[in-house]
Amino acid sequence: MNLLLDTHALIWAANEPARLPETVRVAIEDPDNHVWISAVSAIEVAIKFRIGKLEGANELAERFEEVITGFGFKQLPISVAHASLAGLLPFEHRDPFDRILIAQSQIEQYSLVSNEKLFDQFGVIRFW
User: Fold this and answer.
1) Coil/strand/helix, residue 118
2) Which terminus, N or C, of the chain has the lesser number of Cβ atoms within 10 Å?
3) Residue 91 has pLDDT above 70, yes or no
4) Has this prediction a pTM greater than 0.90?
5) How many CB atoms neighbour CB 107 within 10 A?
6) Contact indicator for 12, 4 with CB cutoff of 8 Å
């Protein structure tokens, strides 16, 4: 299974795995699954850490690539197709980080690991 972690799921997986449902933890740790981290999560973590909204995430913010590689997670770049679809999504959801994740999940057909029930409205396969 291909799993695309929402930014909060990544932060919890890295810093507070007990906050994730057991089914999610098991799926992330399953060596048969591929766990993907979007480049947009690197942007989101860095911005939110810099403005003081992510206390305790300094290691992830400052060494993002190193940390995700250490967990064995794969990098998912943002393509023009991802960006274009994100821009075309309905305006009910204005968060640009979430819009990219939704578009990536749709295009790549990856299960989006997130507690955001709002994502269900966009036809993603949400795993939580």
Assistant:
1) helix
2) N
3) yes
4) yes
5) 14
6) no
Q: What is the mean pLDDT of the chain?
A: 95
Taking residue 26's Cβ as centre, other Cβ atoms within 10 Å add up to 11
CA distance 83 to 26: 31
Q: Are 39 and 77 in contact (CB under 8 A)?
A: yes
> In sequence order, what are the residues at sequence separation of 6 or more whose Cβ sits closer than 8 angstroms to the Cβ of residue 116?
6, 98, 126
Q: Give the Cα-Cα-Cα angle 100, 80, 3 (nearest 5 degrees).
A: 45
Mark 56-87 as b/e (b = at least 16 C-beta within 10 Å).
ebeebbeebeebbeeeebeebebeeebbebbe
pLDDT for residue 93 is more than 70:
no
Alpha helices in 1-127 (DSSP H): 7-15, 22-29, 39-50, 58-62, 64-70, 80-88, 96-108
